[in-house]
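Example 328, ligand zinc ion.
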Amino acid sequence: MKLFYADHFVLPLPAGHRFPMEKYARLRERLAASGHFAPGDFIVPQATDDATLKLAHDAGYIHRVSTGQLSADEQRRIGFPWSEQMVERSRRSAGATLAACHSALQDGVAANLAGGTHHAHHNFGTGFCVFNDAAVATRALLHDGLARRIAIVDCDVHQGDGTAAILAGDTRCFTLSLHGEKNFPFRKAVSDLDIALPDACGDADYLAALAIGLEQAIHRFQPDFVLYLAGADPYRDDRLGRLALSVDALRERDETVLSACRDRGLPVALAMAGGYARTIDDTVSIHFNTVTTAARLYRQGWPLRAGRLQTAPPQAAPLPATHLPAGG
Ligand SMILES: [Zn+2]
């Protein structure tokens, strides 16, 4: 399983900024030390070029981001001050999700160790999101004929408003968002299926809602590719979450989504999305569980359906035994 990262492109943020930038490097270090992945599985992605970004974003907005011409209001809405590093990191992060999609077509599953910047809209960024990696990657796969029907399963605690707005009316895509009803963004977009959860929603209610969502997004929509935004912020000790899930329930969530994909022969690309736990190690653990659960499930077999996706390359050879220890 290939893991794409760009955590060495660090944003210069003011002291005390609430964005937990260091979680990404910590996640990569913990995955590298786990023994579940080979050094060659960790890959720095290419930066996404303008032509690819334009599949989901307004050309003028891309230009303003790239040339430092975002207004003060636009920067405030994003939540980061403009910097060269912000541009590079945003292009790399979108590139990581696109690279993970391409890799998933080969191996069944792959991950962006960041991404899930789902609040970025067609012509503006918001909520720490500059470019919408999931929308860009979705449009690129469709444009290149690598997929025909893509489901975006967004389990970040905040609604995937940018993704829903960008892909609205595109019948090749299904956007599912499970999110806190009272949480940001306060003006919600309309996804193909929105499941709004009350404050303090616990494990059982969340997992029941997830089952309903997957029934629509996977069983009924019948995608040939899935993007999974595995936000760590439905966690009960998240500073921005408002829900009350345990670490074990979040792991069960991952297992449920990824098993549903694996059992149907669906390639799935993961993005980590949000996570703002009071203790950063909790966020890192939740993301770590997502990635290792994906590696374990897809190592157990990825039954790509013959003829289902004619442009998909043949299934990769089984991973060598040293790649992932049993039970990883
Ligand atoms: Zn979030």
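Summary: The mean pLDDT is 92.
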